[in-house]
Design goal:
The complex is a heterodimer of chains A (341) and B (326).
Chain A: H1 2-13, E1 21-32, E2 42-54, E3 58-62, H2 69-76, E4 84-89, E5 92-93, H3 103-109, E6 110-113, H4 127-138, H5 144-157, H6 163-167, H7 176-189, E7 194-198, H8 206-221, E8 225-230, H9 233-239, E9 242-247, E10 250-256, H10 257-262, H11 267-275, E11 327-330, E12 333-335
Parallel strand pairs in A: 3-8, 3-9, 6-7, 7-8
Antiparallel strand pairs in A: 1-2, 1-4, 4-5, 9-10, 10-12, 11-12
Helix pairs in contact in A: 4-7, 5-7, 7-8
Chain B: E1 6-17, E2 20-32, E3 37-41, H1 48-55, E4 63-72, E5 75-76, H2 82-88, E6 93-96, H3 100-103, H4 110-121, H5 126-139, H6 156-168, E7 174-178, H7 186-203, E8 206-211, H8 214-220, E9 223-228, E10 231-237, H9 238-243, H10 248-254, H11 295-299, E11 305-306, E12 314-315
Parallel strand pairs in B: 3-8, 3-9, 6-7, 7-8
Antiparallel strand pairs in B: 1-2, 1-4, 4-5, 9-10, 10-12, 11-12
Helix pairs in contact in B: 4-5, 5-6, 6-7
Classes of the chains: A alpha/beta (341), B alpha/beta (326).
Chain lengths: 341, 326
């Protein structure tokens, strides 16, 4: 695992010290593939991933389905225990067994927004109920009128006006975009400093998506840090200051969003960007490498080399034996590829 | 120009609900010529999928066609008998749906599903049908040894390829694709679209491509129709429409997608929410979300008419010319 130690240091070096920070260091997560008593088979969903999210900033994780991006977010809310590595909130390990952090202490600061706004709200309760619960749990000093005022304030903050009428509604009376706003209101109501947004706009209407992204951008101004998980690299560039590209559980390229998207150095990032449809570009203007459509490998704990080797047009012999070290290509832009070394 | 393959004239489709009729497709006319790719864009609920279902006469209650006609090679699809419809569906016009997981039967192998299509439409032996099935799988880039696989054994991209193979197997003249790649990753989407285009060049079918992704549509279509609240609001050649949109809604849609290249700026998209079809206003349906809205928009519904500056563009807006300068 010495390579990933390098990775951790490289990521750290670009980090300025701030007060509020969510850090992931060398995160490894294995999932069992069977229930065997002996010789149980595992797959490595996340391998040696390190990043940090600063207050008031967004980090986007971009990748295909199965790249491990959602698993990273779920580990941060303790939905999955890490196999190795540390997850730190303001310097304190959230999985520390000696000095355990309570779930409510974690939930007060780290909240999640899910992809499906239809599945994340309880259909038999009003919007008021959905917002009351986290406020009552995390801000117990608010009671009666103060509670109601605070709740209405939250709804207004996310643009659900008139707030009083919205609070009395049930989820089925709201559109997808409005429901996602309720989910955001619920997340910020606890006073959370970090929001993990797992594909928050991919199920919404095209004309509504920007509204939600802009709302989250306004929340950033108030000092909330976002982990924005998406497969849409264009919105990553739009919303997030920094972008990390993941492939089969590995971070292959990361750094300042504009640098990563405008000057991609890793062949996988280049492939992702060449696949993005763009108005005005004509079909068939460039011929793609037939190898690029290859299958995504199943990563095991004993797998070696670069995960992208089977689809990489620039692969050399070394690539299937060892994972490249981290190369710094710009002040805040890192790549793991021999091609760049 | 040759005769259109498909002629839709003043089509209206209503959904009957307890609180009244919602007109999901409102007086839409559209031609598709042989070998042409036409895109239909718009947000969910704008009627683009309802239109696709109506073309194949697949709509069922509570949807009701209340007006208009759909002529395929001169024959009205809506007046066909069940027997004629069986000959029309799939053999002449086939469909590819968004979710390949639901389009394939999970308990039958993909080979059988391909063979079934051939046997249902043509008088051929089982052996011949199997041979055809294998050839078609190979066309979409799946090895024929996969004939005996069940849908759950294939990845999402491969399943979508199988669905395309099934749509192609009878060599229809028109394929209706309803968000064919929305559930897929960008790289897989790109591969499938490239392959589809090679097949199109080989077999010369026409495509009605329904999507909300204007970027993808801009790359592959010849003409684009933009729908809002059941009405066609703009129709024109892809290049022209993309570079010089005339309807405020089209402009808003184009501005709703952050781009990968070019300047990074805060985009505003389209304010407000989609129209409730049970409560439509007088005048233009887009009035509540439009920045150009004025008195005439509130009182009079604009017709879909040709704009002066372009011979082929139809726009339904009182300010089609004025707004372009905005």
């Amino acid at each position: 695992m010495n390579q990933s130690v390098n990775l951790g240091e490289a990521a750290m070096s670009a980090t300025e010290s701030r007060t509020d920070i969510l850090q992931v260091e060398d995160l490894v997560i294995d999932f069992a593939l069977d229930n065997a008593l002996f010789n149980r088979q595992f797959m490595r969903a996340v391998n040696g991933v390190s990043f940090d999210i600063r207050a008031g900033e967004a980090l986007a994780i971009v990748g295909e389905s199965g790249s491990g991006k959602s698993t990273c977010a779920r580990a941060l809310t303790r939905l999955y225990p890490p196999t190795a590595g540390k997850l730190k909130l303001n310097g304190k390990d959230i999985n520390d067994t000696a000095e355990p952090m309570s779930q409510s202490e974690l939930a007060k600061q780290v909240q999640m927004i899910f992809q499906d706004p239809f599945g994340s709200l309880n259909p038999v309760h009003t919007i008021r109920h959905h917002l009351y619960r986290p406020i009552k749990i995390h801000l117990p000093h608010l009671k009666g009128d103060a509670l109601e005022t605070y709740m209405l304030e939250m709804l207004e903050k996310v643009g659900l006006t008139p707030a009083k009428q919205t609070a009395d509604k049930y989820p089925h009376e709201l559109s997808g975009g409005q429901r996602q706003r309720v989910a955001i209101a619920r997340a910020v109501a606890t006073g959370a400093k970090f929001i993990l947004a797992d594909e928050p706009i991919s199920m919404l209407d095209v004309s509504i998506r920007l509204g939600i992204l802009n709302l989250m951008a306004d929340m950033k101004e108030e000092g909330i840090g976002f982990l924005y998980i998406t497969h849409d690299i264009a919105t990553a560039r739009y919303f997030a200051e920094r972008t990390a590209v993941m492939y089969v559980g590995h971070m292959v390229e990361w750094g300042e969003s504009d640098s990563v998207t405008q000057k991609p150095r890793h062949p996988y990032t280049q492939l992702l960007l060449s696949a993005v449809p763009e108005v005005g570009r004509k079909r068939g203007s460039e011929k793609r490498d037939p190898k690029s459509g290859g299958q995504i490998p199943l990563w095991k704990p004993d797998s070696k080399g670069c995960p992208f080797v089977s689809r990489c047009p620039k692969a050399i012999g070394r690539c299937s034996v060892e994972m490249p070290d981290v190369t710094q290509v710009a002040p805040d832009h890192f790549v793991r590829c021999f091609e760049v070394n | 120009m040759s005769e259109p393959l498909l002629k839709i004239r003043n089509l209206c489709v209503d959904y009957v609900t307890e609180s009244g009729n919602a007109r999901a497709v409102n007086n839409v006319s559209l031609d598709i010529f042989p070998g042409e790719t036409v895109g239909l864009a718009g947000e969910s609920g704008c009627g683009k999928s309802t239109l696709a279902f109506a073309i194949a006469n697949l709509h069922s209650a509570p949807a009701l066609i209340t007006g208009g006609e759909i002529l395929f090679e001169g024959q009205d699809v809506l007046k066909m008998s069940d027997e004629e419809l069986r000959g029309f569906r799939w053999a002449k016009a086939s469909m590819v749906f968004q979710s390949a997981m639901n389009a394939l039967n999970p308990v039958i192998t993909i080979g059988e599903q391909l063979v079934d299509v051939v046997l249902a439409h043509e008088e051929v032996s089982l052996e011949q049908a199997k041979k055809r099935a294998m050839e078609n799988l190979e066309l979409v880039g799946i090895h024929p040894s996969r004939m005996n696989s069940y849908p759950h054994q294939l990845s999402g991209g491969m399943r979508q390829r199988v669905v395309i193979a099934i749509a192609l197997i009878l060599r229809p003249k028109l394929i209706i694709m309803d968000e064919p790649t929305t559930a897929l990753d960008v790289v897989v989407e790109r591969d499938i679209m490239d392959q589809l285009y090679e097949l199109k060049e080989e077999f010369g079918f026409a495509i009605l491509f329904i999507s909300h992704d204007l970027g993808l549509m801009g790359e592959i279509t010849d003409r684009i129709g933009v729908m809002y609240a059941g009405k066609m609001v703009e129709l024109g050649a892809t290049d022209e429409l993309m570079s010089d949109p005339k309807h405020p809604y089209t402009r808003g849609l184009l501005k709703s997608f952050p781009t990968i290249f070019g300047p990074k700026e805060r985009l505003e998209g389209i304010p407000g929410n989609p129209l409730n079809l049970l409560d439509v206003p007088d005048g233009c349906y887009f009035q509540a979300r439009c920045s150009l809205c004025s008195e005439i928009c509130v009182s009079k519904m604009p017709d879909l008419i040709q704009v002066e500056s372009s011979s082929k563009r139809l726009v339904s807006c009182h300010f089609a010319e004025a707004g372009a300068a905005e």
